[in-house]
Design goal:
- By secondary structure, the chain is α+β, with helices and mostly antiparallel strands.
- It has one domain: Protein Transport Mog1p, Chain A, CATH 3.40.1000.
- It contains 3 helices and 10 strands.
- The protein is globular and about 40 Å long.
- This is Lipoprotein.
Length: about 180
């Protein structure tokens, strides 16, 4: 009896040790117009954000894996005007930078469309102190606008991630 229990315990510990931290799954978000691979089952949230004095709904899908949170936020804009898109992109870019006390440094990147083609977006990699405990955080993000949606795909980690984890997330992020 003791040997059987001990064997089961060893087997359970062995299986737990072998279970992957990143269990990638493709999520299609038809309501907000994107597809992405998350490293775990994502949760959903929604809250209003104030952009230029206007309240806009922001939907979030987030998943935690390892030492990181992977998220896609989608802001529904009141119109598809370029000025509205630019204001929302600046709001998201500046907010990510402010969260870690960094300059809002971003460079241009192409964001793929699921049906082929690309849209111009922004890419950021920031590091700095976050929260009341001033803990170091690394932020990786891509921002893009398409129609009445502005997207923020981001990873926030308490230490730098392996490049393959970052690449898996961002290379799978495609807009409809």
């Amino acid at each position: 009896m003791i040997a059987t229990t001990a064997s089961a315990l060893v087997l359970g510990v062995t299986l737990t040790a072998c279970s992957p931290t990143f269990d990638w799954r493709t999520i299609m978000n038809n309501d907000n117009g994107y597809t992405v691979d998350f490293p775990a089952k994502p949760g959903n949230d929604q809250r209003p954000v104030q952009i230029g004095g206007t309240a806009m709904p922001m939907a979030m899908q987030t998943a935690e894996a390892g030492n990181a949170v992977f998220a896609v936020g989608t802001v529904l804009l009141p119109d598809d005007q370029e000025a509205t898109q630019r204001a929302a992109l600046a709001f998201l870019r500046d907010g990510l930078a402010r969260n870690v006390g960094a300059a809002p440094d971003a460079h241009a990147v192409q964001i793929p469309l699921a049906a082929g083609g690309q849209v111009l977006g922004l890419e950021m990699k920031l590091s700095g102190e976050a929260g009341s405990q001033h803990e170091m955080r690394s932020v990786y993000a891509r921002l893009a606008a398409r129609g009445r949606h502005v997207y923020q795909a981001a990873i926030i980690a308490d230490k730098p991630l392996q490049p393959e984890q970052v690449d898996q997330f961002f290379s799978s992020f495609k807009l409809y």
